[in-house]
Amino acid sequence: MKVLVAVKRVIDYNVKIRVKPDNSDVDLTNVKMAMNPFCEIAVEEAVRLKEKGVATEVVAVTVGPKAAQEQLRTALALGADRAIHVESDERVESLGAAKALAKLVEEEQPGLVILGKQAIDTDNNQTGQMLAALTGLPQGTFASEVVVSGDGTDGKVQVTREIDGGLQTVELTLPVIVTTDLRLNEPRYAKLPDIMKAKKKPLDVKSPADLGVEVASKTQLLKVEPPAERQGGVKVSSVDELVDKLKNEAKVL
Amino acid sequence: MNFTFTDDEIAFQDAAKKVSAEVLKNNAKHYDETREFCSDSLKALGELGFWGMNLPSEYDGVDISSIGMTLAVEEVAYYCAATCSSLTAHFLSTDSILIGGTKQQKQDFLPRCAAGELLGAFALTEPGAGSNPAEMRTKATRTEEGWHLTGTKHYITNGAYADFLVVYAKTDPEAGHKGISAFLIERGTEGIEYASPEKTLGLRGSHIYEISFDCVVPESALLGEEGAGFSTAMEVLDRGRVEIAAMSLGIARAAYDDSLAWSKDRVVSGKPLCRHQGIQWKLAEMHTQLEAAKMVTYKAADSRDSDRRFSVESAVAKLFASEAAAMITDNAVQIHGGYGYSSDLPIERYYRDARITRIFEGTSEIQKLIIGRAITS
Ligand SMILES: Cc1cc2nc3c(=O)[nH]c(=O)nc-3n(C[C@H](O)[C@H](O)[C@H](O)COP(=O)(O)OP(=O)(O)OC[C@H]3O[C@@H](n4cnc5c(N)ncnc54)[C@H](O)[C@@H]3O)c2cc1C
Asked: Is B1 contained in some domain?
């Protein structure tokens, strides 16, 4: 069974986000970029399936600028067998990415497509679902466990989903789309020798036109604003004062 | 001149940053407070191939440029200088084998060192011979049973934790530095004694040991050729000094980053510290020292990969970066005020950890001696 795993280049989660002075977007100049943490979990799951002998090949794919090849290389260092880069300098959002991925699903015919449930930059939480809609494949989103029964021979997969207040397990018929939640696994670190070996693994570059899709976003970004600065708190000297403030200043009582 | 890093170099920097920020950082304070050896952090790096960063792929190393290695060492030091010290001491031992060893010795040891299975130590310094190692008194005499080693080494990083020691000893006491040879001695060899680890100002998670020898080792323990020990050690130290410069950079950058962030948050007399000119100038000086230290360090790393000799470049890098780290960590304490002196923040640890970089692998005075001799010869 082939596994297609999607990864996105996003601002590193350790970086303190700055907004451009004209509020047009987040400021990305000289900012450290990394693989979206949910995508790391997706890669890890795919690689584990390969190590278990369930997956025969892991193909990493990204839709984004040339620099996103860094993230593909990370995926290759972590254990993906080959990579596909759909190169675009446009601002790609969920639907554009999902369209490109849908074409690749058609070309590659994977048994399993794994994506992060959301990317930490735009927090849309849509690509996996849109991909399922476009391909007509069943989806198991917010996965905290993925079990391919009979090691893929009986064509079924059970996905345990993290839902409000509990867990839900669904059984799906392959091929399927899975999106990862935080607790699915703990991603490994790339080993230095594997980082060097990753360079020798195949990486195909395609344009959206090659796939016959348009990936540019149809929405227009009007403005980005940083969250309001936190105001300092006040200390009150008695319960009465607290109640008074809650009633008359905060007007919550 | 080209001031950009290659994709490989950036990938190594990223990989080092990730594991250091997520694993090493969490252990650093604990090691410092308890003086526990940095085993877990060191092991985490070993499993990911960091122990073989100085080695070619022929011996299961990674064929990364010295700049790539420098960037990775810097990240390790940024989050835990003690772990960095143990790692670079390991590199001194494997560089000794790489430079001085026979093909067989390289094959026997280096792949396992690269894989994180064997930890090494480099034993040159003695109680009576530090800055001038040619004055060493440890001796190795050829006997029927093999080489008989007697003497004492001290301040040996990794000491009792090391699976093997590269020990420098006189095989011909009359021949001065030409009479020095190196030996590969495995842990557990009868006749080796380790004293308890020294208590030190900084790098408390990286232990240093006094080790005494009265042991017999087989002929095969001689590293490479008899009499080649001193030149091997000097070549190893030329390489090692680039790593100490990188370690200095890492500690200094941590102190600088924390100071900059602190100066923006901390409000004194109605404005953030960084808006007071006296503090802003300090930050500007720290920034400048850091930038200059990076340049000499990366240049030395680049020369290290050339066929030219790079003793002067590496001495310049080590001297400048270690002195810069002293200035930067000292200012970091000053900018933080009492908070910088308290152990609640890592600032005082940076200050203590940075201090050693002006001493080991040749003191600042010895670097000046190397540079001075070269430019006046
Ligand atoms: C934490 C730590 C880890 C270490 N790890 C190792 C290790 O793994 N392996 C190892 O072999 N050694 C190791 N060392 C030893 C270290 O390399 C020596 O301490 C160092 O080289 C200085 O030698 P010394 O202590 O004997 O000082 P000395 O040589 O006694 O020097 C004392 C002072 O005199 C100055 N001085 C000496 N000669 C001259 C001169 N010609 N002109 C002007 N000034 C001079 C020095 O600069 C210094 O300021 C370590 C030391 C420490 C503290």
From this structure: no
Residues B26 and B102 in one domain: yes
Give the minimum alpha-carbon distance from B6 to chain A in angstroms, rounded to a whole number. Answer: 12
Nearest CA in chain A to B11: A195
Yes or no, beta carbons of A70 and B10 under 8 Å apart: yes
Regarding pTM above 0.80, the answer is yes
Owning domain of residue B54: 7-114
For residues B59 and B103, give the distance between their C-alpha atoms in angstroms, rounded to a whole number. 10
Q: Quick one: A214 exposed, middle or buried, by C-beta within 10 A (0-12, 13-18, 19+)? A: middle
Q: Tell whether B107 and B219 lie within a shared domain.
A: no
Place of tokens 């990240």: B75
A73, A77, A189 ranked by CB distance to B19: nearest: A189
Q: Which tens digits make up the pLDDT trace of B177-228?
A: 999 999 999 999 999 999 999 999 999 999 999 999 999 999 999 999 999 9
The CA-atom distances, in angstroms, between B50 and each of A154, B41, B84, B92, B173 are 42, 11, 11, 14, 38
Q: Provide the number of structural domains found in chain B.
A: 3
Say yes or no for a CB contact (<8 Å) between B62 and A193.
yes
Domain boundary among B114, B134, B158: B114
List pLDDT tens digits, range A121-143. Answer: 999 999 999 999 999 999 999 99
Say whether both B147 and B243 belong to one domain: no
Cα–Cα distance list, A72 to A13, A91, B92, B283 (Å):
18, 19, 34, 38
A2-248: CATH topology is Rossmann fold (3.40.50)
Chain B nearest C-alpha distance from A71 (Å): 10
Within a domain: B109: yes
pLDDT digits (tens, 9 = 90+) for B2-46: 899 999 999 999 999 999 999 999 999 999 999 999 999 999 999
Domain residue ranges in chain A: 2-248
Interface test with A, best of B4, B6, B8, B41 (most A CBs within 10 A): B8
